[in-house]
Design goal:
- This protein is α/β, with parallel strands linked by helices and 315 residues long.
- The protein folds into two domains: 121 residues, Rossmann fold; 162 residues, Rossmann fold (3-Layer(aba) Sandwich), CATH 3.40.50.
- 46% of the residues lie in helices and 18% in strands.
- It has twelve helices and ten strands.
- The chain has a ten-stranded mixed β-sheet, sandwiched between helices.
Length: 315
């Protein structure tokens, strides 16, 4: 099963508890067990930077290079010790680089070495700082060309649930393509980790301005029509991937609210969704569904980009 074969794991240098690396080992082990060549491999990676080494006038350029190399070597030894303690049969390579912007270092590695999955541990972000000072997680979600798996504390139990968030109400080519990619990955991973696939889709309720401006407008009839439209589209989509209709969820509301509610109801171990890669002012003011959802969930999130997405760092 060639889902992901070349995996980049972002290491947290502040702790010896590397949940992202452990998740990667589990995933790669399952992948290798499902095929004969055992080719899934992992690169354990992080970037380090100390501004004081760049600014000091006491050291010469060659001395600064030597100091940086020494710091990198120390971290490399620490990382190799962690890898050795995990005693994994999966091929794991360690890599430490000097870079002042972690998200750029990660994405540059993905572009250069064509990693097909990035795995990173995450945590609750401060809501205010998430807007003003965008966390590394958000930069990766917006700009990384490969799928990104953000790992939390939730386990992946046997017969657990994977929740795939789709937008079946849209007939735009990009959304249809992304719906198929999300559902395909959900079914592939479900077979790999022995889980059940659920689909979730939200739809908007009656626009408030219409109800005010047109008193005779029947909001109940409108909501029923919207529900029926999305339910029919969902049934057709689920059938393409042989997903049980009982595992489909159509709810009125904002995507981030509906996804969170359904994920909690079914105790999802993994939520799979698409992210449009919005950047700049629109990203700061509007954000992406993936970014709104990620802080609210207690499980892993796998974010996929639309087909043909090119990272702005690839220029």
């Amino acid at each position: 099963m060639d889902i992901y074969q070349n995996i980049l794991v972002v290491i947290d240098p502040t702790t010896d508890e590397q949940k992202a690396l452990k998740r990667a080992i589990d995933l790669a082990s399952r992948l290798n067990a499902s095929k004969s060549d055992g080719s899934a491999k992992i690169t354990a990676f992080f970037s380090i930077f100390d501004f004081s080494y760049e600014m000091t006038t006491i050291l010469s350029s060659s001395e600064r290079d030597a100091m940086r190399a020494m710091v990198i070597k120390e971290k490399q030894i620490w990382l190799d010790d962690i890898i050795e303690e995990l005693s994994s049969e999966v091929e794991i390579t360690s890599l430490v680089v000097w870079h002042n912007r972690p998200f750029e270092a990660i994405i540059n590695q993905v572009i250069e070495h064509k990693y097909d999955l990035v795995i990173k541990g995450t945590h609750q972000h401060d809501k205010f700082k998430s807007v003003v000072f965008t966390p590394t997680d958000w930069h990766i979600l917006r700009k990384c060309p490969s799928p990104v798996l953000l790992v939390k504390e939730h386990q992946w139990p046997k017969n657990g649930n994977i929740l795939a968030a789709v937008n079946v109400g849209s007939d735009e080519t990009e959304h249809l393509s992304l719906n198929n990619e999300i559902s395909q990955k959900a079914t592939q991973l479900a077979k790999l980790i022995e889980a059940n696939v659920h689909l979730v889709n939200s739809y908007p309720g009656t626009p408030v301005n219409i109800a005010i401006e047109i008193p005779e407008f029947d909001s109940s009839e409108y909501n029923v029509a919207m529900l029926n439209h999305h339910q029919q589209a969902m049934n057709e989509h689920a059938a393409k991937f042989d997903i049980n209709p009982n595992n489909t969820h159509i709810e009125e509301g904002l995507p981030e609210t509906v996804i969170e509610q359904v994920a909690q109801e079914i105790d999802a171990e993994l939520v799979i969704l698409g992210t449009v890669g919005r950047t700049g002012i629109s990203a700061a003011l509007i954000g992406n569904t993936a970014e709104h959802v990620i802080d609210q969930l207690n499980c892993d999130v796998l974010a996929l980009k639309p087909e043909g997405y090119i990272s702005p760092l690839a220029d």
